[in-house]
């Protein structure tokens, strides 16, 4: 049986967390990423600006909670290519932080929403259309190792245990928080 985790961005200390500059982030990009509606993501993003309050060390995974714009390093993209994770919407972007003239190449890596929720066993708040308990049907996830849920308004990125284990075994420990929660089965 498959085991699933929420994948979130994290920092060892709060002052090292990476934030996007909300004032310079387009609504199309933010909502396209949040909803996994790739058709609304601009074709050529080019630059994504970081908030000057962001930490100095850029991790391999960046996804601030407000915007839900998932970004991965060149190094992590190479690993994803090696293990054939092709279901993500990728676009190369330049991360810019003006306070120190930082300019680093990253990848926008947006997972698709897939219909894999076992609705009979899940608990969905009808008012908000948000699953409070997610019971995933492993047959319906197929070969997807990273995805979002299509059957509810939840925004969390979900990964299979095998991907989590691989990421950790390859030394990608900065920027990731894998959460095994009772609400995700």
Q: What does the model show?
A:
- The protein is α+β, with helices and mostly antiparallel strands and 185 residues long.
- The chain has one domain.
- Helices cover 17% and strands 29% of the residues.
- The protein contains 4 helices and 12 strands.
- It has a 5-stranded mixed β-sheet. A 5-stranded mixed β-sheet has the order 2-5-6-4-3. Strands 8-9 form a two-stranded antiparallel sheet.
- The longest helix is centred in the first third of the chain and has 9 residues, at 27-35.
- The model has no long low-confidence stretch (mean pLDDT 91).
Helix % is: 10-25%
Structural class: alpha+beta
What is the end-to-end distance?
10 Å
- Approximate shape: globular
Low-confidence stretches: none
**How many domains would you count in the coordinates?**
1
Multimer state:
single chain
How would you sum up this structure in a few lines?
With 185 residues, this protein is α+β, with helices and mostly antiparallel strands. 17% of the residues lie in helices and 29% in strands. The N and C termini lie close together (10 Å).
Per-chain topology:
Layout: E1 4-9, H1 27-35, E2 47-49, E3 61-62, E4 71-73, H2 74-82, E5 89-97, E6 102-110, E7 113-114, E8 123-125, E9 130-133, H3 138-141, E10 146-149, E11 157-160, H4 161-169, E12 176-179
Parallel strand pairs: 2-5, 7-10
Antiparallel strand pairs: 1-11, 1-12, 3-4, 4-6, 5-6, 8-9, 10-11
């Amino acid at each position: 049986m498959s085991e699933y985790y929420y994948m979130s961005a994290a920092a060892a200390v709060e002052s090292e967390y990476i934030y996007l500059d909300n004032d310079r982030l387009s609504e199309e990009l933010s909502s396209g990423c949040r909803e996994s509606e790739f058709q609304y993501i601009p074709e050529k993003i080019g630059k994504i600006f970081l908030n000057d309050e962001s930490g100095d060390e850029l991790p391999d995974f960046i996804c601030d909670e407000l915007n839900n714009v998932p970004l991965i390093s060149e190094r992590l993209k190479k690993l994803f290519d090696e293990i054939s994770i092709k279901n993500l919407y990728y676009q190369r972007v330049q991360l810019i932080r003006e306070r120190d003239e930082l300019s680093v190449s990253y990848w926008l890596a947006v997972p698709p929403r897939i219909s894999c929720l076992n609705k009979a066993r899940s608990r969905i708040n009808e008012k908000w259309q948000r699953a409070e308990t997610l019971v995933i049907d492993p047959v319906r996830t197929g070969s997807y190792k990273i995805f979002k849920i299509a059957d509810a308004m939840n925004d969390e990125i979900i990964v299979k245990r095998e991907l989590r284990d691989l990421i950790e075994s390859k030394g990608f420990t900065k920027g990731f928080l894998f959460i095994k929660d009772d609400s995700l089965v």
